[in-house]
Structure prediction request, 233 residues.
Amino acid sequence: PAARPTVAPIAKGSVARHTITHTETGSVIAAMTPKHGSVVLSARAERTTSPSLGRHLLPALDGMSLPGLVVLDLDDTCWSPALDAKNNLRGPPFRWCDSNRTVVDCLNKPVRVYPDVPKVLLALHGAGVPIAVASHNSKRSWCDEVINNFVLDDDLKWGDLIPEQLRIIRCDGGYWPTKKEHFKDLQEAFAAEGRRLDFSEMLFFDDGNKVCKQARHLGAAAVRCVGGISMEY
Prediction:
């Protein structure tokens, strides 16, 4: 695999050490509590607000057992269609557009990010859960530019939440058609910081059935997001 660029380290003390079980459904904003000898996902009632999201409510995750890492697919999970899809976007420069509340390309065509993505990201960030990306998109630079320009909250952008070394956006060689190499790279990124990350600590969201099954086979928990990630998952 190509060498990663030198970037700021993953924040110390942000990785929770809790084993999670495999699940098809449940809430991304969830606690893991025992029930009938297993681990299930359950929502918490307490909420917090975000200034830029206005009346939208964000779940408060303090005090919950959370995964050590949440891994997000991009295409058809966080946005749709894929950034590299034919006849979708013209390309950079990408910039934030206040009127559209999303990032637009060089022709002002908006990137269609699923509505709940900002809420999911902010809730995880507020709870100190590390967030990563595992994507097969062929245009890494486009994805980076969209993520780095997408405004989540006052003075906080999507790119601020995901370090470069936790963005595995590749579809070449062994990175296609599975995401096994993506997951291994994420483990290596944690190891570089002196911390072990087991597959059992990962919670993975993707629209693809096969990659979700593979993630479960490796020991991670995986949720298939049909129609994009949302608070319902």
Notes: The first strand starts at residue 31 and ends at 35.
